[in-house]
Amino acid sequence: xxxxxxxxxxxxxxxxxxxxxxxxxxxxxxxxxxxxxxxxxxxxxxxxxxxxxxxxxxxxxxxxxxxxxxxxxxxxxxxxxxxxxxxxxxxxxxxxxxxxxxxxxxxxxxxxxxxxxxxxxxxxxxxxxxxxxxxxxxxxxxxxxxxxxxxxxxxxxxxxxxxxxxxxxxxxxxxxxxxxxxxxxxxxxxxxxxxxxxxxxxxxxxxxxxxxxxxxxxxxxxxxxxxxxxxxxxxxxxxxxxxxxxxxxxxxxxxxxxxxxxxxxxxxxxxxxxxxxxxxxxxxxxxxxxxxxxxxxxxxxxxxxxxxxxx
Length: 311
Description:
With about 300 residues, the protein is mainly alpha-helical. The protein folds into 3 domains: about 75-180, no CATH class; about 190-275; about 280-310, no CATH class. Helix content is about 50%, strand content about 0%.
């Protein structure tokens, strides 16, 4: 019995060992065109998700560049009439000159310029008409809330009439100051008419009613009092009684009829002699005849009417 031979080791040729190829990437098959169209239509029809609510905040302030382009607007309750050349002293004219540097005009508009109050108040008024809307708005803010220490010393001075009228508007609810405006003989009657119509302070009304010279000169003051629902009837009667005794009778104010009836017979006859007949009280035929005779309406009613009656 022979021993089996040990098998010889197997020798492999390394040349057949080649690196493995990478596996190919598996890609999904393209969707059919019909499916793509349906998916697109579904996405378009689906509303977007609702936004998450947030705590409201103040809108951001506009940038300096944007804010500088916004012209401030304001309204004044009185007529703006440019001041005459001599209303502002020559030494301070530059502060209200529209051709002067804007920073200087702005300082004057804010009452920050080193100018005496007697000149500064008219300058601020003039700057209400400045071509630069920012300067004009600053002037209005200052003029509408004048400091008492600034304005009080000049209210009895010889200020321009348009400035005094404007001060009567802005100081209407500040009696100690507006009283001084009303007592200034240079204050225009238009300021009295405005305050008679709009003031609510009894002390202001009393100052107006007590100024008989102005009542007799400007009848619209009494008309203003009669339209002001905050004026006491006793104050209206005081003003009307005075005018009736002076021969003034306003047909458009009911209080005049009551005032006339309160008079005695003798006073009524005396008043009738003093009443001045105006042309609008005559009829058209009476006016033509008065013109032919060269008579005033009052003269015609006293004598010329007899001629017309005879005719």
